[in-house]
């Protein structure tokens, strides 16, 4: 791929996803080449609270140790981060970067709190899974393909990834925590207010709109239930420019 093509691809990544993706590449590589001390990047309660190393909750989100044993998993996580964060930012959050950033901040804060209790020193895995979970809930009936040609609905994908990591890596706790946090956001933002008629507990702070204002031409009706969960005639009665553009299933791990 030519240098100009790479530049065009990178500039084409949505704003919030581009920042998250960039940090998740630069910081691990800087630690890999000795420019940063990995022990200063992980999340530990004692260092944050008693020594005021307040950067750790942020660096723990971006940092991932790159070794011959973890390199493939790291690349898979980058793929999921880019793909599903981009799909959310250009889907239900299209034209509303502040709302999408608020979702990421909410999930991140929840994971930091869990990390202080668990402890959970690296936040990349659960953060990516929390975003993937939200996309899967908003596209529950989309058919996705996994390795070995298996196909299933998107709503099962997070659990397939948990099982896959348990089998391949003997892990899975981080993914489970990501699912819990993703479900908490989805429940409070979408399911509880709409399916149960409850109050909206989550609201994007106005300061985020100041720095990340809404753009014209985004998907209308933010906060409404996905089209697949609403009456068919309601979605079709809307003008063409007002209908939802939900993500489609895609092949995972294939060519």
Automatic annotation (TrEMBL):
Tell me where in or outside the cell this protein is found: Endoplasmic reticulum membrane
From the record, give the transmembrane residue ranges.
20-42, 62-81, 101-124, 156-188
Which InterPro entries does the entry mention? Answer: DER1, Rhomboid-like_sf
Which key words tag this protein in UniProt?
Answer: Endoplasmic reticulum, Membrane, Transmembrane, Transmembrane helix
Bilayer topology annotation: Multi-pass membrane protein
Q: What biological processes does GO assign it?
A: response to stress
Main subcellular location: endoplasmic reticulum
Does the keyword section mention Zinc?
no
Q: Which PANTHER family match?
A: DER1-LIKE PROTEIN, DERLIN
State its role. Answer: May be involved in the degradation of misfolded endoplasmic reticulum (ER) luminal proteins.
Output a single Gene Ontology CC term carried by this record: endoplasmic reticulum membrane
Among the Pfam families in the record, one is DER1
Q: Which family does it belong to?
A: Belongs to the derlin family.
Query: Region entry Disordered: which residue ranges?
Result: 224-255
Q: Please identify the protein, giving its name as recorded.
A: Derlin
């Amino acid at each position: 791929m030519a240098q100009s093509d790479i530049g065009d691809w990178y500039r084409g990544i949505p704003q919030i996803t581009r920042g998250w993706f960039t940090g998740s590449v630069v910081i691990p590589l800087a630690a890999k080449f000795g420019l940063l001390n990995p022990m200063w990047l992980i999340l530990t309660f004692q260092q944050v609270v008693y020594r005021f190393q307040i950067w750790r909750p942020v660096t723990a989100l971006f940092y991932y140790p790159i070794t011959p044993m973890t390199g493939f998993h790291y690349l898979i996580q980058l793929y999921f981060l880019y793909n599903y964060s981009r799909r959310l930012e250009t889907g239900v959050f299209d034209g509303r970067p502040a709302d999408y950033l608020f979702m990421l901040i909410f999930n991140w804060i929840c994971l930091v709190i869990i990390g202080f209790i668990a402890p959970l020193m690296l936040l990349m895995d659960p953060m990516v899974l929390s975003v993937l979970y939200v996309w899967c809930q908003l596209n529950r009936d989309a058919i996705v393909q996994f390795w070995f040609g298996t196909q299933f609905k998107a709503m099962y994908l997070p659990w397939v990834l948990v099982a896959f990591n348990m089998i391949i890596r003997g892990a899975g706790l981080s993914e489970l925590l990501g699912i819990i946090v993703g479900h908490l956001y989805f429940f409070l933002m979408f399911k509880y207010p709409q399916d149960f008629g409850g109050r909206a507990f989550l609201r994007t702070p106005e300061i985020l709109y100041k720095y990340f204002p809404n753009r014209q031409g985004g998907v209308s009706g933010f906060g409404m239930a996905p089209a697949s969960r609403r009456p068919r005639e309601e979605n079709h009665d809307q003008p063409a420019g007002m209908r939802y553009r939900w993500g489609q299933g895609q092949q995972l791990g294939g060519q």
